[in-house]
Structures are given as structure tokens and as C-alpha cells.
Design a protein that fits this description.
The complex is a heterodimer of chains A (331) and B (242).
Chain A (H helix, E strand, L loop, with lengths): L1 H23 L4 H26 L6 H19 L3 H23 L6 H18 L10 E2 L12 H25 L1 H11 L1 H6 L4 H20 L2 H5 L1 E2 L1 H4 L2 H14 L5 H20 L4 H16 L3 H12 L19
Antiparallel strand pairs in A: 1-2
Helix pairs in contact in A: 1-6, 2-6, 2-9, 2-12, 2-13, 3-4, 3-5, 3-9, 3-12, 4-5, 4-9, 6-7, 7-9, 12-13, 12-14, 13-14
Chain B lengths: L5 E10 L2 E11 L4 E5 L6 H9 L6 E6 L2 E2 L5 H7 L1 E3 L12 H13 L6 H14 L15 H13 L5 E5 L7 H16 L3 E5 L3 H7 L2 E6 L2 E6 L1 H6 L1 H8 L2
Parallel strand pairs in B: 3-8, 3-9, 6-7, 7-8
Antiparallel strand pairs in B: 1-2, 1-4, 4-5, 9-10
Helix pairs in contact in B: 3-4, 3-5, 4-5
The chains are: A mainly alpha (331), B alpha/beta (242).
């Protein structure tokens, strides 16, 4: 697995780079913004495991993210649990939510799962608003602990933590894509009936994808309360998370793990820049306009555009790793 | 009981008020080649769907190699050794021909311990057997009709079936292509695969079948040797009227 070694090397490099940045960059805002970009890499990658590979669209990513965040809040208040426990608990609980929603709706094909995810978002938000222990609708201030050793500030530490979660998510998504599991999910997206007759246990695979996708979204949400030092339902359940988690993979390209990463880095960066330079309201508009533009003009996303460009220049297909899946053309 | 590969007993299937299948019973022995004929809407594809698990029978039972599969989902039936093709080819369009064939190889043949490199080798071998060797790395979406038919066959065979269900695998092919596909199907049968085939092309069904079943309005009208069935007065009435 030459590709596997290269990926591992790249992952280690990214982690080293993230650590190095926390010691070289002076501007604290860089880490505030970088954290958000990495958080969207996780969300987009998680969404793509079910939405991109298997073709089951989740409109309620915000709910899974928020369940992760509020799991962390509850653990901080009740047990003063360390961050690592918060992340793992959020991963498990949001995964359970993904499994539950999947078990209820994935027996049926088509849009039932998508509709259910919208309902889940509303139910979760209502539950949190009425749960006084975690602040209810008024929200809750959370004290950031002192920055751990080696780190100048807690935000810098969280930036590295989110980089780790992102690397873990992308590695998982890549493994799924190039393995037989990914081929099964793609078979489901292409033709579920034919997949089933080819021996693919479609329900089991869809449930696994929904569980994993939800779990990663929860992990992305877990450090959020500490990052903000404050939590309240409206911002955590913001539609922005649901829209971005879906727009980023579609804009980047859903066929490969690279797509959501490109989409998230690009879109989240643009959003940060627009928020700072123009207005914080306009950044949602940017996502919307780009999403519409890509769906109409380039439904295969940036990956599709790049592939078409490369092919038209006569370079071998697959140079982008977009079809890096073990069975495809290796030329 | 185990002497039959497939035993369908009084299977019924309704869609709302429409009875697509009524008390259909048939038995298929090992190595047999059964042809199913009947006019459009007579329930041929519904019968295949009930056998393969794409649809659940409302009543009756289906045994496969002595195992009751009436309530099993399609992928479990595939693992037990049943494969099918679809009336309209339904490849996995986002994948190459080789990947299409690799799916059942990994999920049925290598179940539990799939191995990508081995799956590719085996997929290429199957494609070569079907005469698609040079098209292995083309996306399924660009293949012409006859190649899609062969790809359906290759994907079905990739699961090492003991029973192959072919739903109009030659529809839309030229006369020469019909012979080409028919030769492949007969070769598979010689390897020991039991085959049930739905077909409208009489020349093909006559050459293929050891036994023919004629369906009309969801019921079996008659069954027997191909020549007998073709001469049967009810079959003549159904096809020619009067």
C-alpha cells in the first residue's frame, strides 16, 4: 500500500505543521479561525460518509454536532470531565443517535431518512432549550481551563485537538472509501436493489455509515463549548452547520475523501474572510450562492472539474486519487 | 426434498387489488434449464423478484437447496448461491466494469475476508470469460447494450451461484448477439449452474430450455418440453388469440 504510506506521511506532516504553527504564529485570531476550518473538515467528511458514498442526505448535521457539544457541557457540569472524555462520550452518543435515526428510517429507501434528520434537529433543539441543567435557552458560560503545558493559550490547544479529530475523520473516510465497505456503499447509491442482489447487506451498511457519520459529527461538536467559553442553543443548532456540512462535500466533490476536505477548507476559509472583512451575515449567503452555482454548473464538484481538466489534457485518469479505490484503473 | 434446487409452492403476490401471481408452484432440479414464457404483464418478472428476494411473496413458500428462504432478504439468498440479472441492465454506473464484478466477489465469494487485489484478479478473469477483458477499466455507463448484458451476467456469476435467474438477458440484442449471449449462458450451464430464464425471443427459448413454463395472468398455464408447450392450445390462444 504505497498510497497508504503516503497518506500516513501526509497526516503526520499536517499534525506537525499544526503543532509548529501554535509556536510560530503570534496572531491569536489565526487559531480561532483555523479551529473553525478544521471543525468543518470533520463535519463535511462525516456527512460525506453517508451522503456522498451511500447517497443518503442528512439535513440535520447541526443536531449531531449539537448533541456532541451538549454532551460535553453536561459532562463538564456534572463531573468536570477532561476534554478527551468529552470527545469520546460525544462520539459515542451522537453515533447512537445516528444509529437510532437510521434504524427507524433506513429500512425505507429514498428521502425518509432525510426528512427524519430534519425532525431530529427540531426535537434535539427543543429538548436542550428545556433542559435547565445545561443552561436551557439562556445558555451557559463555561470557564476555559488553564492552557496545558507547551501551549500558549487554550485556543491553540483546541486547534491541535481539532486537527487530530480531523486527521482521524479523514483517515477513517479514506479507509472506508478504498475498502470493500466503500464499494458496497457506492453500490447502494447507484442501485440499491441490484446491490442487495449482489450480496451487499444494504441495511447493515447504511446503519454503519449513519452511525459513524453521526459519531464523527458529535466529536466535532465536543470541544465547541470550551472553544466558545459559552453555549446556547440558537448558535449550536444554527442552520449554518447543516447547510455547510452538506454544501462543502458537494462543492468539493463527493466521490472521494479529498472532496469534502477541499470543500471545507475552501468554503470555511472564505466564510471566515467574509465574516471579518464584510459582514457575518453575508457568509451564509456565500455558501448558498456557491452551492447553487456548483449544483447547476459542476455537479461533480471541484474534483469533477479537476478530473475533467486533467483528462482533457491527456493525463492518466486517477492522478488526483479520486478513483483511488483498489480495484479501479491503476495506470 | 434436497433433490430439487428450487421449490416454489403456491406463491401469491398482490399489488393492491391486482393479483400478479396466484398459486404459482414449480420445481427446478439441479443442472436444469427452465424457460419461462408468457405475455407482458403475466407475472414473469414478479416471479423472478419473489424468488430472488427483491419482493416478498404474500403467501406460499420458497425452498432453495432445501432451505426455506421465503422470508430471507435478497443478500442472504445471494450468499446461499442465488444470482440474477435484471430485465433492464442495472450496473453500478459510478464504477468500472471490474469494480461492478468485484462487489459480489467481495461480498459473497470472499465474505468475511475480502482482498482487493485478489478480487480484481478474479473480476478480470470473469470479464475475460464474458468477452469483456478489454473493457474492464471503462466506466459501466459508457458500455453499449450488449456489453451491459454481459456485465450483468459477469456480476451474477461473480457470486458463484448454483442457481442463476435471467430476466430477458437478450432483449434488445441483434440476432448475432443473441447467439453470442446464448452460448455464454449454455456454457455456464455446462459448468453445473442451474438456470431459469425469462425470454420473449422464441428462437432463444426453444434452443435454451429443457423445459418451458408458460404464465398467463399470474397463473401457470402449462409446462413441459419446449415443443409441447409451443403446440399447446392454451399457449397458442394466449399468443395468437382466438
Amino acid at each position: 500500500m504505497r498510497g497508504g504510506n503516503r497518506f500516513l506521511a501526509a497526516a503526520v506532516l499536517v499534525l506537525i505543521a499544526a503543532l509548529a504553527l501554535t509556536h510560530t504564529v503570534q496572531n491569536e485570531y489565526f487559531f480561532f479561525a483555523g479551529y473553525v476550518v478544521l471543525q468543518f473538515v470533520v463535519l463535511a467528511t462525516a456527512w460525506n460518509i453517508l451522503g456522498g458514498y451511500a447517497g443518503y442526505v442528512n439535513f440535520g448535521s447541526g443536531a449531531f454536532f449539537a448533541v456532541g457539544a451538549y454532551t460535553a457541557v453536561a459532562l463538564i457540569k456534572a463531573l468536570d470531565a477532561p476534554l478527551i472524555v468529552q470527545v469520546i462520550a460525544a462520539f459515542l452518543l451522537s453515533g447512537l443517535l445516528g444509529f437510532g435515526v437510521g434504524a427507524l428510517t433506513l429500512r425505507l429507501r429514498g428521502i425518509f431518512f432525510s426528512i427524519a434528520t430534519v425532525a431530529v434537529a427540531v426535537i434535539c433543539e427543543t429538548a436542550v432549550i428545556n433542559w435547565r441543567f445545561v443552561g436551557g435557552s439562556r445558555g451557559l458560560a463555561i470557564l476555559q481551563p488553564a492552557a496545558p503545558l507547551w501551549f500558549e493559550s487554550y485556543t491553540r490547544f483546541l486547534f491541535v485537538v481539532m486537527a487530530l479529530i480531523a486527521i482521524f475523520s479523514v483517515a477513517l473516510a479514506r479507509y472506508i472509501q478504498i475498502s470493500w465497505i466503500g464499494r458496497g456503499l457506492r453500490a447502494i447509491r447507484d442501485d440499491e436493489d441490484a446491490a442487495e442482489c449482489a450480496g451487499v447487506p444494504t441495511l447493515k451498511l447504511k446503519l454503519a455509515a449513519a452511525t459513524l457519520s453521526g459519531a464523527l459529527m458529535g466529536a466535532a461538536g465536543a470541544p465547541f463549548p470550551l472553544y466558545m467559553s459559552f453555549i446556547e442553543p440558537t448558535s449550536v443548532f444554527s442552520l449554518n452547520y447543516a447547510v455547510s456540512a452538506l454544501a462543502m462535500p458537494i462543492i468539493g466533490g463527493t466521490s472521494s475523501w479529498v472532496g469534502p476536505v477541499i470543500g471545507a477548507v475552501l468554503l470555511a476559509s472564505v466564510q471566515q474572510i467574509v465574516t471579518v472583512t464584510i459582514s457575518s451575515e453575508l457568509n451564509v449567503l456565500v455558501v448558498g450562492v456557491l452551492l447553487v452555482a456548483f449544483v447547476v454548473a459542476a455537479p461533480q464538484g471541484i474534483l469533477g472539474l479537476a478530473e475533467r481538466l486533467i483528462r482533457s489534457r491527456g493525463v492518466a485518469r486517477g492522478a488526483l486519487g479520486a478513483r483511488d479505490n483498489g480495484i479501479g484503473d491503476r495506470s | 426434498m434436497t433433490s430439487s434446487v428450487l421449490a416454489v409452492r403456491t406463491v401469491c403476490k398482490r399489488f393492491g387489488g391486482f393479483a400478479a401471481l396466484t398459486d404459482v408452484s414449480l420445481t427446478v432440479g439441479p443442472g436444469e434449464r427452465l424457460g419461462i414464457i408468457g405475455p407482458n404483464g403475466s407475472g414473469k418478472t414478479t416471479l423472478i423478484n419473489c424468488i430472488s428476494g427483491s419482493l416478498r411473496a404474500d403467501a406460499g413458500s420458497i425452498d432453495f437447496n432445501g432451505i426455506d428462504i421465503t422470508r430471507l432478504p435478497a443478500h442472504r439468498r445471494a450468499r446461499l448461491g442465488m444470482a440474477r440479472s435484471f430485465q433492464i441492465p442495472r450496473p453500478f454506473f459510478s464504477m468500472t466494469a471490474a469494480e461492478n464484478v468485484a462487489v459480489p466477489i467481495e461480498y459473497v465469494r470472499h465474505r468475511g475476508a475480502p482482498h482487493a487485489a485478489r478480487a480484481r484478479r478474479e473480476a478480470l478473469a470473469l470479464l475475460e470469460q464474458m468477452g469483456l477483458a478489454d473493457k474492464a477499466d471503462l466506466p459501466a455507463g459508457v458500455l453499449p447494450q450488449v456489453d451491459l448484458r454481459k456485465l450483468e451476467l459477469a456480476r451474477a456469476m461473480a457470486a458463484d451461484p448454483s442457481l442463476l435467474l435471467l430476466d430477458e438477458v437478450m432483449a434488445g440484442l441483434s440476432s448475432a448477439e443473441v447467439d453470442e449471449v446464448l452460448d455464454i449462458v449454455l456454457a455456464l450451464n455446462r459448468q453445473g449452474v442451474t438456470i431459469i430464464m425469462i425470454e420473449h425471443i422464441m428462437r432463444a427459448i426453444m434452443r435454451f430450455s429443457l423445459r418451458v413454463v408458460c404464465l398467463d395472468a399470474g397463473r401457470i398455464v402449462t409446462e413441459g418440453a419446449p415443443a409441447e408447450v409451443a403446440e399447446h392450445p392454451d399457449v397458442r390462444r394466449i399468443y395468437l388469440g382466438a
